[in-house]
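So, can you check what follows?
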Amino acid sequence: REYNVSVSAHWRRPRWWALATTIAGVALFVRAGFWQLDRADEKERLLTAFAQATTAAPTALEQARRIATTTTFPRVAISGHYDSAHTYLLDDQTRGGRVGVVAYAVFEPADGSTALLVDRGFRALSSGSEKIPPAADTEQTLTGLYAPPPAIGLRMGGDALPAQTTWPKRTIRIDLAEISADLGRKLDDHVLLLDPDPGSGFERTWQPETMPPARHRAYAFQWFSFAIAAIVLFGVMHRRRNKK
């Protein structure tokens, strides 16, 4: 004997609010997943642009100031001299399990334009009393990337620079406004990331401060998983149970 069993024998009619909530949730999760994929592609382009900039022909600082954005990093050549009396050390930095500092020096362009902070790179410290040699104040030409300063992150405590009376001064963040106030003069709103130089005594491996593409893709997978889970949960809750 053949039996004609309708779909309603296996499924309960959902309430309108349950259906609307599920549809809205799935749409939201899917949209968030695709947004994360778009962000991953954007970060891929950013990393590619950054890598290409490190080998590009250097341009003038004046032009770099006109074209620089948060996603472009012009490589520049700047002539001038260091202000060797003023150095700032970004404290408690680690590279490969080693603890040290990142040294920043003030550079005065030869054309008399606004001074800028130069990231000289990371240096591991074997002891707390080890000294960081100041940058030579002779006339020279620097090459490197004209980039935004490092992110400040969570601000802990006030400005510790004015209380320090000896140089170099140590800080837990590179805040250009605080450093400018400490120096008593204006600084460029970007910093110079110097080209690598094995003989400098500083490690210089530059990467944009951004979330890696792989993490965005992992988040996208999570959002898509939430969408699938919402559909499965909706089906389980509205499937008729066998009375037996």
